[in-house]
Batch of 2 targets.
Target 1
Amino acid sequence: MLEVRIPLSVPRNRRSEYLKNYRSLTKNSGRLLLVAGDQKVEHLNDDFYGSKVTSEDNDPEHLFKIAAASQDGVLATQLGLISRYGHDYRDLSYIVKLNGKTNIGSNEEKNSSFLWWTVTDIIKFKQDSGLDIVGLGYTIYLGNKYEAEMLNTAAQMINQAHQAGLTAIIWMYPRGKNILEEDIHTIAGGAGVAASLDADFVKIKYPYDAKNKKITAERFKEATVAAGRTKVVCACGDKRPVPELLEQIEKQIKISGTSGLAMGRNLHQRPLAEAKRLSAALSAILFHGKNHQEALAIYNNTEKKKEPVKSKRLFGL
């Protein structure tokens, strides 16, 4: 049985609700496989349409189909999409993303600190819809000129989420002039900020393009330790070859000590059948302790099947 340390910001009369939501969020494992559907806003159609993207991806329902086909995935997206498609995907667990911005124009000029919906709105929607809304998500850009507003809004959102027995996930991205977004020391600082905000999970970047993969995974421990009891989830970034992706995820989990991953383009840019195989491979590493070779065999549908045990017959004389 998973032991969950419930934050003291969760009232006594909401602890059972928080525990239920946390177990649903992590599939009773303490780890998280987050299907990132919030990119429909963040990236507009740039990552959902084109010659290198499956034609299925232009339809928002592709995100829901992938999450439903995955063994352990939770879908994070905006309330509007959940409202439109949720009645057909009632078995899914959802994270509602509460802020965002598009990629049009200068990021520096955009104040994305405002909540699109209030926590009260989400609680009412959860009650009215009967959907498994397990938590709320919010993005912070450390170093941005609107940092103070974002930190204030995030703190209030997390506290209100916990007061209602919901979990809270922070997307934490250091971003701004002269900021090295993939510097592990800077990323670790952001993870510590998420812990200071009382987040349950923090989604942060991982330097996938670093030359020495093992040394990078060792160095990334700085971020997981800095996050303390807030668990670290790594963003997967651009679509990558599956063998490389699985090997790096294994290193994140087994060396860096991360507690999951958030996957957008690496899943939704693939056809549903392939995305399903990839999610099974990811689950094998995250939830079942498999190595990347075993996970790749699952992705390729070449894993070794156990031979059935033949029963011994006893013959009398």
Note: The two ends are 50 Å apart (CA to CA).
Target 2
Amino acid sequence: MPITPTAKIWMDGELVDWDKATVHVLTHSLHYGMGVFEGIRAYPTANGPAIFRLRDHVRRMFRGTRILQMDLPYSEDAVCEAIKLTVTENGLESCYIRPLAYLGYGEMGMNPIACKVRLSIAVWPWGAYLGDEAMRTGIRLKVSSWARNDPRSVPTAAKCSGLYVNSSLAKLEAARAGYDEALMCTTSGLISEGTGENVFVVRGGSLYTPPPSGAGSLEGITADTVATFARDLGHTVTEREMRRTDLYMADEAFLTGTAAEVVPIGSVDDRLVGTGEPGPITREIQDLYNATVRGTVDRYKDWLDYAT
């Protein structure tokens, strides 16, 4: 989906013009992928733009930088305030927010110690990541031939820039084959996640999702939100190892992610999931998510941080 430029990007404590938010071609992270990013959304509400689960996203980013031994020169509070400022200064009622911690220009080579840790925050208007039609009717999913990164080789618990080569290859393969999205499995054939989303399977009224520790998937904040919704609605949610056949036999299935939000899965490898239409539990959760992020559900208002 194309990016619509906005007025300002926050870089290392200053708001700079969009076109001037540049880095040197020898920036360390550009060559070696040592960076940690987040995807966050702000939504329009009756009280102005509200950032959904801002603190949880920033905490996760700090956990990721700790894993990579990148010492951010800011506190969590300072980053939260910088994100709010960037949203406000760009005058956006709703937007996607991309903070990125990266290693700047310094020395070239595998040892990153001499490279300064930098931080940028960009915001821009962004619609449904997989498209409005996908939100209504569901997506066509393909199990990728590319295995998910193995947590014994790289830290899959970190939202690390370089690790997403894995996801991009899977996405490209699926798109060229005519599918909307790819599902990635571990090298032993266990379901992990989509290219940027967690996965839920519904069977017999209960929800199942892969355990991040075993599947190498990211601990999703939207996935946690959905699990909370499901339990509050009276459904059982279980972390369980699954294989692709669990999706083939599912009554319903859906993906979750900040960019993707809650997206029904209509088919997997050309096999219909259930009837092929979004199921009642998927719709129930999708509707509650859409209402919550827009500030109309009192029970979850603590998850909203107002930018103004």
Note: The chain has two domains: 8-124, 132-293.
